UniProtKB/TrEMBL annotation, chains A, B, C, D, E, F:
This is Enoyl-CoA hydratase/isomerase family protein. InterPro entries: ClpP/crotonase-like_dom_sf, Ech1-like, Enoyl-CoA_hydra/iso, Enoyl-CoA_hydra_C. Pathway: Lipid metabolism; fatty acid beta-oxidation. It is found in: Peroxisome. GO terms for molecular function: delta(3,5)-delta(2,4)-dienoyl-CoA isomerase activity. Belongs to the enoyl-CoA hydratase/isomerase family. It holds the Pfam family ECH_1. GO terms for biological process: fatty acid beta-oxidation. Keywords: Acetylation, Fatty acid metabolism, Isomerase, Lipid metabolism, Peroxisome. It comes from the Eukaryota. GO terms for cellular component: mitochondrion; peroxisome.
Length: 280, 280, 280, 280, 280, 280
């Protein structure tokens, strides 16, 4: 199966049945991202989304120092943040920027749109894009050495690939979101845990990855119809009224409840054995 | 007054002036729900909603073992989860499922639509439907022995009578919601308190019910115009922009502020005595 | 600069470069608000919003006893809560109430619409309107002696100048919001911190104000393009879907990213010195 | 089948296979509505909605003079519009009015929520409630003698059971809607046709009813899975963004496309014969 | 009464009881607008909105040649469209432009927010801002010589004070809106009538103004509670789902139905005489 | 330039400066679509969207008989509408259908998302997908021989690639939309013109294409900043409240108004010559 995936800037392995492990692999530059990387990331999650062999995914960063230090600022100053040499017209520059930002956002949103649950294990520097990227995932774990920051205001800009749109809906503490986003200050693992940005803190990076893998393995052991429906319905409900959430759930489950997974799961429950589910 | 209520699967009592106590009463089956029960529950809350003698409501479960173990899976496999014998056409099955799920949702939503505040006191097993039901209430208390789970993925389905639509708007920790909903794992009273799913944890079931009753009694002692308006405006605001919330509040209060309760409340405040309010 | 501001019910000072300090100044009446005060407050924040010399703002209350005890109930019973002597027609009274409530809301909303971040430092009695007002700000700090209450139901009405619309989107604990709003009970600094209503608790009022000033000073030291964009994008995202948030961010940043602040910030980062930004 | 329906204020017949005809039957009072009538109407359409023998419905009014003259004002002045004798408190009156208006709206909305298409054939006086009621249906036909009016402002109130919410989404001429709703002026069949409120005008009431029946019969001859899905998807799309409409359509059709009706319809098309579809 | 109004760029008269006539008064420049004019227009409609002597309003343009030729382009090139001399930073220019456009929009939106119905009578050149302005009104009439254009693309910009947001919701012909907005082509009275942009076409300007006055007089003769409620409920419904429209209507009418206007209107109907209503 | 485009199922030419002509090219099968065609269509419009040489686009169909007869039903019965051989589980089939429908929708939505205006010229059979496709465009023209139908219910399904979501927002006659969508009946050019589905009817296909080309040429002669902004702002406004539309417009124009196109356009206006605009 792994043969189908040949990313250049990420390692991809399959440590457990139905579980993929995506590792950001540019450790010498603190896993900082440049354009080719986020495009590849988008492609990768689009592919994982419909791969029948995959039921859950974890993301981590290679090397000891950083999950990712965020945007590779040097590359960006020659790209996204460069003055647009094609034109001096601010309106035309704006058009080019809109296309670039929109394309960048789509790559990160691929994690949220991925039909399977995604668990992120962070460590070390987890700055800027680290927050955007992990906010698009479902569950966040980290090592106790993790140093987070919504770093963008420090380089003169408002974060624009997801943090400002998703973070207020992930942690229920709007004052804290304002605090960290308006100051770009560092915060640690304990603070991230307290406000609910991460769900668990581990002693080391290795343990965080192991913990994420265990969680992903547990999710992968359940009915994929049930798990993937649950991810979708939670994301939909986040953005709609309770009534629209209930109605969409009804329509969704009018097909999903016809699955044989229900019988498999019920039977396995009675027989106290691990169910198996048809591939999806 | 109690004469008007003759539920079959619930006990209803009036332990304090203006306070109703609804008890799920199927303790031998861990208060598990089958269709006739949720239909009765819906009717009961529709009736309580406009009963002038009632200003707040508490819900608890009979017996020592469970608030409710959720759906009666055995009954459901012959009902909601049964293969639809009337047709083999998946689209027609979907129509029947839509109607059944929609009807079921309406019964649970009756708690949310009930004009009076509803406080739930949980204990023991509080699985699946327990989360859907209590998420439709206003405040949740529990005993320290409570064992919660968003259990649905374990029977092959995505929760569809409210948990996935309401839980993300009740607790401000989307990662935790994803975690418990995608794994179906058990969680205890302390965890529920920490993430804000319950507001208080008590030593025993009896104390939890007593605590809920005290809270409900306090709410029932306030102006019913003010209290019922507050419940409605908070629920509306949850589902709308701040601006739409403010506007709706303006329209609502343009009638509500004309109440004599304001004078009664102000006067009682000055005279340091308990106000009484015209029935509603 | 201060010459332009001559409020009657507030003190305004500029304790740090680019930082304004607004102090509610009616300490003899526990800083309770009457109509002329909230109108002045609205004007003040509209003016601060576009003042190029101001990049962040703190609000506190004069005197030792209260940030504000809320609405001056005595004044209100002759104004907003007075029976409307112009007419006995409930529909016409409703029209007058709509206009008054709407006008009142606009004054408080001026804090939210103010383009610069606003940090509130509370102490002592912080009742009713204190919650409405501080909920419209970005970050809330308090002294440990602060006594909060969503006091409105105690005077027979549902809070209508912002608390019920904003509080559920500030703290991610809807059960707690229901609890305090439906009972009007007092809660203290520690509880406010635990649920995320305030971000930090200080030993004394003076320290809280000092803390707020430090935070505001830090925000004022960053690129105003980045900071003001971040405030706006977070507030927009709170009220829209993630997708609408991302799109709005794209459009916003298509102009904002053309700022020279990005180069200034990047260069200062490399040169390890404090950047300066053109006034805005 | 007709045996199941025993309405008191309506006639119900089944003039064609799968087509029900509901006739408002109070011709001596110009088919004016009082409370028991709209409650019965609501029940009737809820029942028709899930009756497998029914695939489309027409509504008309008995007698020569009126489809319906609207609210029976005399009955209403003792009911909905009566001064509320139970209380003098405007806020409590408002609660009672809210419940009554809400209940009334639900009865009319039952036509919109009915899963099958509803065609209305109007004639003669079609005032006030006639507009509310027919706006909740799918297609409107009328005789050339029809006299329409959004009559409510003439009795001192804003229309509140659907006209003001639905009419602007039915006819794409907001100025015309404002004109007729703000003046209560009469308008005739030709004007109704020109602005798109009705789809066809017939010489006589009998022809209008016949035309409606032919349209309903045509709709009833198509796949009920396709027809009922189309009604629902159009109503959903009216109230949502194009993107939410597309997504909801995807989820809906993921079950609906599995129907054997597709094969039946395709085969009938090839064989040039009338398809038959399993009952729904 | 007229004494209270002293506009500089508009004439204001009261040709009928409860009816105000606002005339754009810069005929020598084809009634073209510059900044001071739209600010005055906003103030004027805010004042009219709560003037108890006014129940409906008409707007027309002085002189024979134009209702308004739109933006005074010469003035604009030194103002709104001038290059911003205060800064060369495109992001800072964007901030200034945002404030200016937003302020301009608020002035036009004052017509829509005005609680009383507004009828516009157009003639001659009615370009650019003429469309923005009249789209914010309730009903549009015109003389047959009127020449309309959504003129903005011809001066290199997308219309930004209302046309693009309101026109698609006024006329139900999105292709036509795209056509005229993307080409800036002229269109005449007959075309405007056909697509529903205007409701009636008159031979001359004088007749158009007379027709508008008759319509406004009719509206002013009805219960102001009913009329103003109807305007508000239609505008709210345009922007919300049918369900949110129905709910808002319920809340609104729970106060409005308590008016004595209902009894006055009913009684007048029975007695066949013109009702009078308490001032509002 | 044409060298960059090598579509297989479409012809692409550039009949005027800045204008592209896309012709559906499968005349022997009435231009019926199969999967490879809509995928290519999506790619084509994504490419045109950012091609600086293109400022407007027209679409027509090759051959005399049809713009397009819609879905190639034969191909579809082996593809989208085929029973899913990979699984018998209805829930898994639903997942596969969701992915296929979603992918199909994206291809059609590419026309709407294309930054440049798109004009469609239809003739002959214009069934099913013809309506979906043309509804995603900006302006629709047709020859008088055109035969339209929302054909989907005739093959047992609800239209799912755009018609049901877009048509109610294009034509302001919801009853007509219901009529044609629930009956699948044919309608002609005159009816399409009357309800506003098409903007103009021509004698022949050739004239329709010529008319479309003239319109597109006119649009291409205007400032591309203004034209593309206008398309985007109209589409955004269709799906949002007026207030959100106004706000988005403000943000958009805060960059767009900085264009030198404004000066070019103003100057050309004064000098009575055709402006030229920098490429975009």
């Amino acid at each position: 199966m792994a043969a189908n995936y040949t990313p250049k800037y990420f390692n991809i392995t399959f440590p457990q049945e139905h579980v993929a492990h995506v590792e950001i692999n540019r450790p010498n530059q603190l896993n900082a991202f440049f354009e080719a990387m986020w495009i590849e990331l988008g492609h990768l999650f689009n592919q994982l989304s419909t791969d029948p062999a995959v039921r859950s995914i974890i993301i981590s960063g290679a090397g000891e120092k950083a999950f990712t230090a965020g945007l590779d600022v040097k590359a960006a100053s020659q790209g996204l943040l460069a003055s647009d040499s094609k034109t001096t017209d601010p309106a035309r520059k704006a058009v080019h920027l809109r296309r670039e930002i929109g394309g960048f956002q789509d790559c990160i949103t691929a994690i949220e749109k991925c039909e399977k649950p995604v668990v992120v294990a962070m460590h070390g520097f987890s700055l800027g894009l680290a927050i955007d990227l992990s906010s698009a995932a479902d569950v966040r774990y980290c090592a106790k050495d993790t140093r987070f920051a919504v770093k963008e205001v420090d380089i003169g800009l408002a974060a624009d690939v997801g943090t400002l749109s998703r973070l207020p809906k992930i942690v229920g503490n709007f004052g804290w979101v304002k605090d960290v986003a308006l100051t770009a200050r560092l915060f640690g693992a304990e603070e991230a845990l307290r406000v609910g940005f991460v769900s668990r803190v581990f002693e080391t990076k290795e343990e965080a990855v192991k913990g994420a893998l265990e969680l992903a393995t547990l999710m992968a052991s359940k009915s994929p119809i049930a798990v993937q429906g649950t991810k979708e319905l939670l994301n939909w409900s986040r953005d709609h009224t309770v009534q629209d959430g209930l109605r969409y759930t009804t329509i969704w489950n009018s097909a999903a409840l016809q699955t044989s997974d229900v019988q498999s799961a019920l039977l396995s429950g009675i027989q106290k054995r691990k169910p198996t589910f048809e591939k999806l």
